[in-house]
Every structure is written in structure tokens, then in C-alpha cells.
Design a protein that fits this description.
By secondary structure, the chain is of the alpha/beta class. It has one domain: TIM Barrel. It is built from ten helices and twelve strands. The strands form three sheets. It has an eight-stranded parallel beta barrel, surrounded by five helices. Helix 6 (157-168) links the parallel strand 7 and strand 8 (171-175). Helix 5 runs parallel beside helix 6 (157-168) and helix 9 runs parallel beside helix 10 (257-282).
């Protein structure tokens, strides 16, 4: 791993308004960094805005966007990117990441749509990522996404992902659950996908739960507990790459804070297991 890109460390948690007051008053000791969607927080004022400022003054933060629509044929919203840059600068936010997908076509579609796995799409998306990075003045991270259809596919998912990342010279936001979900839905080897990821570009990772529609069809929901095979895949990722920052992503069906923090503790446990094993091998 290239340690220079690890702008955050340890185990993180997605910050939600529903428990903002709770973490301001009693910050969890096991959360090393937080993540927010900039669209939901950039224009926030009042009490929530003040509480958010209290948090960013005390803890490391990253941004995970929802509406950049990096794969769209619509013009890039440069004013929005500039607003993200200003928001990050104001709060000292470490990383901006987005999905390798699109969510607009002559207006917002309110869903993350799959980009065709083609050479033309690689060139188009990489060019737009470079445009974003020029405005930000730094590298952004791109997340591998879950998808349920691959229209016009000319390349394997991992080859498309790696080509975009290489051509754009951006960082990787690794989503462990998405790899697992896609491996079941599309019948590929999750560990093989992992091993092909460029280790030196990993900025941080997500881990989350999903919904089981059928034995061979999973839906990426971020609305359930993380299951054992996904935890094991995270452990395998640490075996391959070493420990990298990892964040628990939970978007709805949010349980009590104690249950969320148990899953954050599991991230720490898997990270510590790797460290201990590595130290034993090095002794």
C-alpha cells in the first residue's frame, strides 16, 4: 500500500442527521473518521450546521457524493464541483469520492445507472474525472458500484474499472459489499476481482449490508447488517493489500447507535487481526 494516500485511518462511520446530536454530545471512541454526502450538508445551516462544524473541527471527514453523474452525457456541472471543493476546504475534508455510474440524462434520474463497459465509455468517463480533479485541485476517488445489467458490454467489469482509474489517474474507493453482490449476481470470483485492484490507489473502503431477493440475486441496499461472507471478504482484502481505512455505510433501517458501533468494532477487530498476524510473521 502507498501510505501517502491514506488521508484517514482506522474505522469510519457514515454520519446521519438522525444521530448527529448524539455523536456531538457523546462522540464514539471507536470511530476514527466520518463520511457525508456533500449534497446533503453543503447548504445546511441552523443548529445542524453548527453541530456539523463542531464535528469537522474535531474529527477527520470524507465526502461520498451522490449526484456528480460522472458517466453522463450531460455537461459536467462545474459549479457543483466548485461548491464541493469550497465545502471541503471550509471543513478540512480529506477525500471526495463518487460512484462509477451516472444519474442524469437531460435531468436527474434519481438512481445510479450502470455505465456501458466499453472503450469509448472509458475515455469519456476518464476525461470527466480529470475535469473534476482539475477543479478540485486534487485526486478524487472512484467507487466500484453494484449493477444489475450490463448493456452494451465489451469488457469485464474489473477491466473497465481499472482502465477508467488508470486513464483518469484517480484514486480507488473500494466497496467490499458491491464486489460480493456483483460476484453473486454476475457469477464471478470476488477474490479474483479484489486481486486485480490497483493497491497503490486505494484511498478507503465501504462495507455494508444488502437484501437477499433470491439465492442468486442480491440487492445493494445499505439497509441491513453486514453478513459473514462480506466480513470475510474484507479480511481477504486486508490479506492482499494490508489494512486500509474502512467505513461502515448504513443509509436506512438505521439501528440504535450501540448496534452500529458493534459493526465498527468488527472492522477494528479484523484490522487488528491482520496487524497481529503480520507482526507474528515478521517476528
Amino acid at each position: 500500500m502507498n501510505k501517502e494516500i491514506q488521508k484517514v485511518h482506522g474505522a469510519g462511520l457514515g454520519l446521519r442527521r438522525s444521530f448527529l446530536s448524539q455523536v456531538v454530545d457523546t462522540p464514539p471512541t471507536n470511530v476514527d473518521f466520518y463520511e457525508v454526502a456533500p449534497e446533503n450538508w453543503m447548504t445546511m445551516g441552523g443548529r445542524n450546521g453548527k453541530q456539523f462544524r463542531q464535528m469537522t473541527e474535531r474529527f477527520d471527514f470524507v465526502c461520498h457524493g451522490l449526484s456528480l453523474s460522472i458517466g453522463s452525457s450531460d455537461p459536467l456541472d462545474e459549479a457543483f464541483v466548485a461548491s464541493v471543493r469550497d465545502f471541503m476546504n471550509l471543513h478540512g475534508i480529506k477525500i471526495y469520492s463518487e460512484h462509477l455510474s451516472y444519474c442524469s440524462h437531460n435531468g436527474h434520474l434519481y438512481d445510479l445507472m450502470p455505465i456501458p463497459f466499453t472503450e469509448d465509455a472509458v475515455k469519456h468517463v476518464a476525461s470527466r474525472i480529470r475535469q473534476v480533479q482539475d477543479i478540485l485541485g486534487e485526486q478524487m476517488a472512484i467507487e466500484n458500484v453494484s449493477y444489475y445489467a450490463a448493456p452494451g458490454q465489451e469488457m469485464e467489469e474489473i477491466d473497465f474499472f481499472n482502465a477508467v482509474v488508470s486513464d483518469a489517474d484517480c484514486l480507488v474507493h473500494l466497496d467490499i459489499n458491491n464486489i460480493y453482490v456483483n460476484s453473486i449476481n454476475h457469477g464471478y470470483d470476488a477474490e479474483g476481482f479484489l486481486r486485480a485492484i490497483p493497491a497503490e490507489r486505494i484511498a478507503y473502503a465501504h462495507i455494508a449490508g444488502h437484501y437477499v431477493e433470491a439465492e442468486d440475486f442480491l440487492v445493494d441496499t445499505h439497509g441491513a447488517d453486514v453478513i459473514d461472507p462480506v466480513w470475510k471478504l474484507l479480511g481477504k482484502a486486508y490479506e492482499i493489500f494490508g489494512v486500509f481505512p474502512t467505513l461502515l455505510e448504513r443509509d436506512f433501517n438505521i439501528p440504535p447507535m450501540a448496534e452500529l458501533l458493534q459493526e465498527v468494532d468488527t472492522i477494528h477487530q479484523i484490522q487488528n487481526d491482520w496487524v497481529n498476524q503480520h507482526e507474528q510473521r515478521s517476528a
